[in-house]
Every structure is written in C-alpha cells, then in structure tokens.
Design brief:
Layout: H1 10-23, E1 28-34, H2 35-43, H3 46-49, E2 54-61, H4 63-66, H5 69-79, E3 84-88, H6 102-107, E4 112-114, H7 118-127, E5 132-139, H8 144-157, E6 162-169, H9 171-180, E7 188-192, H10 193-199, H11 205-211, E8 215-218, H12 222-237, E9 243-245, H13 257-266, E10 267-274, E11 278-287, H14 296-299, H15 315-319, H16 343-346, H17 351-357
Length: 361
C-alpha cells in the first residue's frame, strides 16, 4: 500500500492542519473544482478539521452532474430505439431525466450496456454491424482524449455504425463563469490534478492575472488536499495571486501534448449548456465537421428535444458554490441516492451524494 498510505498519514495531516490553524488570520473561501476531491474532503473529515475562518465550497467538477437535463432526455430517446445498442459509463445510468433514467429504459428492454472504455463501444459496433452503437461521451478534459481516440479509430476502421453523444465540458471557462458571476464568494481554487495532467496548467495563468485569485493544482489524497489548501491560504494571507502546482508527481505545466493534439484533431471548442447553470460560452467540445457523421445527436435527429429543470433541485447553486447540499429543502428526504431529483445526489462524484453518504446533514 506504499504510495497510497503515505498520502493518508494521520500525523502528517495533523501537522498540516496545525499549520493552517496558526496561519489563517481572516475568513477565506476556497473552492475545490473536482467532485473526486469533494468526496475525499468529506469522507476523510477534512472539512471538519479546518479552522472556522476557512469555508470550503464545492465546484462544478462532476461531469455527470453538469450534463444538462435535455441531453439526458436525448440519450433516453436514442436508447429507446430498437436498432440502438447504447453504451455508457455506469454513473450515467441512474441520472434522472425529465421522466425516467437509462437504467429504467434498460429494465424495460432497451439494449443498454455499461462499458469501461469508449473503445469497447467501437468493438461492439464491429461485432454487431446490424446495430447502431452509441457511446455517451461525458466528461471533462480528462476523459476527452479516450473519446477522441474512439472516434478517430472508428473513422480509420470505417466503422459506420458507431457514434457518440457528446457532452464534453472544459474547466477554465467554468472557473471564469464562477468568478464573474454576481455574488461570487470564491477567493481561491484547488484545481483538478487529473485535468491538468492532460491539459497542463498554463491555461490558468490568464485567470490568475485577470481575477487576482490564487490557483493551486492539487491531487486527490487527503495530504494532497491539505497541502493544496495550505498553499492557497498562504498565498491569500500574503496577498499573492499565484499559480502553483502541488501535484508535481503527476502534473507539469505543458501537460500531455500528444493527447492535446488528438483533441484538436477530433474536437472543436463550442458553447456548452451545464445542468443547473445554463450555457457557458466556449466551455465544451463538439466534433469537428469532418467527424460529423459520428455525431449521435445529428444521426438520430434529437436536437429538438428540450427539457425544463426542476424547480425544487438547487443543483445549479451547489455546482457554483453558492449553496451547500444541506441547504436544499429536499436533501435526504424527497431527494436521496435511491430517488434522486438531481445528478449531484446520484453521481459517485456528486457533492450531494458525498454529504448524504458521510453524514453531513
């Protein structure tokens, strides 16, 4: 368990907590972007160890959570077609649409299969040439290269019965949307280490300069997060707007250039709707025109499917860091992991699910 336990050492964690307690002199609000980081913070109790002057708010870094309701409904409409073999990662199956979810469609006879890689979906398309195989391509920059590779490979192999339902979103535009929104309280960010492993962290330099906020690229283990918080709070206390990298064992400034080249070859940046938030300009990936025949929305003509967000679920405010899960009147009562009103309660990276499972009522 070496290389895992060393980032969960309790004595080292207590030293970092002690250092934070002695350093902080005024109230600060920090947002961690990634839902995986949120779960580590809540599961390990870090939120309860910090001084009361430090407020943690949770960002929109759960790709399942920010997939818009209308796209879930489009996925369901496609999956219900008899000629379709619909594939997805497991998290998406229980995300509620307007009237049902993909798991219920499967229970009613729809051919919906959980896969572990989009390349598995390409193989299914080769194995079943009589079927239309669709992969639900959801995620941030972290999963985008694998989905781009699946499209590229299908094109190279001439697999014409494969397509993706694309819902890729990008982190930097979301951070800018949060910082420029009325009522924003976020003063510093813990950036998602896995996104930066792909894209590097040079993209955050203009955000630091424009909004004068410190950003620290941070890993996912308890000591990673505590060290990232220490670095962010130190910058805030010293009045520095700095960009730093805590996750040096994985991340460098440039990122994975090969992955970035593949993304540029298959995708183009586009406006993207975020569930509970709305449209953020230039915040997503769409397929380039030369790969448009792999676009499931166009292939199955579902672009006219629209949806109305729940007037009870406050997922949008939670994803922007304006409210916390237990501020929702439905939390733990009308909204539970078994009967969710919104994606943050059912996703394994959702803030509401973290608060529910680890007892933050």
């Amino acid at each position: 368990m070496r290389f895992v336990d060393e980032y969960r050492n309790e004595a080292d964690a207590q030293k970092l907590v002690h250092a934070i307690q002695h350093m902080v002199t005024r109230p600060w609000t920090i947002m961690e972007i990634c839902g995986g980081q949120t779960h580590t913070l809540i599961k390990s109790g870090i939120d309860q160890l910090l001084p009361s002057a430090v407020t943690l708010v949770h960002g929109p870094g759960c790709p399942v959570c920010v997939t818009p309701l209308e796209l879930i409904d489009r996925a369901i409409a496609i999956a219900q077609r008899p000629e379709v073999l619909f594939t997805s990662f497991g998290d998406m199956l229980r995300v509620p649409g307007s009237n049902t979810d993909l798991l219920s469609v499967k229970a009613q006879g729809g051919d919906i299969r959980m896969v572990y890689s989009p390349l598995d979906a390409v193989k299914l398309a080769q194995k079943h040439p009589e079927r239309q195989v669709v992969f639900f391509a959801v995620g941030f920059e972290t999963t985008a290269p694998a989905n781009a590779m699946a499209v590229w490979q299908a094109a190279q192999l001439g697999v014409e019965n494969f397509s993706i339902l694309c819902s890729h979103v990008l982190v930097p535009p979301a951070m800018e949307a949060i910082l420029s929104a009325p009522g924003n309280t976020v003063q510093g960010f813990l950036a998602a280490g896995h996104v930066c492993a792909v894209m590097g962290y040079w993209q955050y330099e203009p955000i630091v300069a424009r909004y004068h906020v410190p950003i620290v690229v941070t890993g996912f283990e308890p000591l990673d997060l505590l060290q990232g918080m220490y670095m962010t709070l130190k910058a805030l206390e010293e009045g520095r707007a700095s960009l730093e990298n805590q996750y040096t064992r994985v991340v460098n400034r440039a990122g994975n250039r090969d992955a970035q080249r593949l993304l540029q070859q298959v995708f183009t940046v586009c406006d993207r709707s975020w569930r509970g938030i709305g449209v953020i300009p230039h915040s997503g990936y769409c397929l380039r025109p030369e790969f448009a025949n792999f676009d499931a929305e166009q292939r199955f003509a579902v672009m006219d499917v629209t949806a109305q967000e729940s007037d009870i679920c406050i997922a949008g405010s939670i994803l922007q860091g304006l409210q916390r899960p237990h501020d929702c009147s439905a939390f733990g009562t009308r909204c539970t992991p078994e009967h969710p009103l919104g994606a943050p309660m059912v996703s394994s990276e959702g803030a509401c699910a973290a608060y529910y499972h680890y007892g933050r009522y």
